[in-house]
Design goal:
The protein is 33% helix and 18% strand. It is α/β, with parallel strands linked by helices. The strands form 3 sheets. Strands 1, 2, 5, 6, 7, 8, 9, 10, 11, 14 and 15 form an 11-stranded mixed beta sheet that branches. It has a two-stranded antiparallel ribbon with strand order 3-4. The chain has a two-stranded antiparallel sheet with strand order 12-13. Strand 14 and strand 15 form a beta hairpin. Helix 3 packs across helix 6 and helix 10 packs across helix 11.
Length: 419
Amino acid sequence: MRKRVVVTGLGPISCSGIGKEAFWDSLIHGRSGITEITRFDASKFPSRIAGEVKGFKPEEFMTHATATSAARFAQLAVAAARCAFDDAGITLNGSDPYRIGVCMGSSSLGIGDIGEKYIPLFFQKGLRTIHPLTCVEYTTHMATAYVPIELHIKGPNTTISSGCSTAIDGINWAWDQINKGSADLIIVGASDAPIFPFTFGTFCAVRTLSKRNDDPPKASRPYDAKRDGMVLSEAGAAIVLEELNHALERGARIYGEILGFASVSEAAQTVAVEMSGTSISKAIELALNAANLNPADIDYINAHGNSMVDYDISETNGFKKALGSHAYMIPISSLKSMMGQSLAPASGLQIISSCLSLSNSVIPPTINYEFPDPQCDLDYVPNRARYNRITTALINSHSVGGTHSVIILGRYTTPNSEG
């Protein structure tokens, strides 16, 4: 028999708020975290807006040494992991640190603050300008490396980098580790910090970013007929996964249970998306099968919804193919309408939000939904949060390169509970 794996800790660090309470308050009140870029002078860029994490002080979450040496993406990861660790009420007194694992991930890693600082210096002045630890600090695995150092945990650890699906794919790895008995508890998440000139410029070059510079909070508008692209943001997200009996024995709060997972690839193009939604549909069908559920069992979809014309249509078509007529009855919302596209941690923030929806029976809205796109004709919970009891939530994520990952969460129930 497979073990039951539950979520017991949540750690969001985003432009919509630092920590669970601030994050959730922003979501349910439909507040956008998108502003003009302050990190650098973006006046010559076609897009000059982003989701920056304001008021973030690394020293509040980690040692001074880590706060001063780690790349920003690693700092965001450590902060998110710290929040999730504390939210889960974990103490190492009496716990075996070798039974607590970590899986973090990133897409843009340290190419921003670390790479953009030292690469020009190297070409101008040579090898002597490179800090000795540069080869370590910009690598993807440093987020995973710093979390155990800061939290003093020594269990299995790995790094996953699969674009926007990173956090969902990390959940699947962690689920496997717990099921085969390698760990009792694993911190899973992702982080990205792409708000630096070159990194941001690459997204401008591919022409995926919104140019609604005169009204930043209105720029990200998934499924809206007047959307003109996504808004880039930075974030960290961490989730504590735990074997059910271990969680019950220590009296942990349970936000939800992992019911099913699936991932497929379009195997088509690196940037363009399959408009029919066939691959998204297949991922959803496989996740439903893994969870032993039917389309009618899904109460809510936390969608990828990145505000790009083709992606939103593709996702909508995928929902219709997989869920049939029931797709029109399921409330769907996109967090990216409020916090933009944060890349690797995006699906982690979706999972955190869905856990809070399961716990609080509230669905965050898709804000800026003013002019319905006739090709996106489902219930996107427009502009205002909705009170709705939820027992199962489906989270969908699409990554550049054609990866579609889907995870299904359920409200935790005991064997004798009526749910």
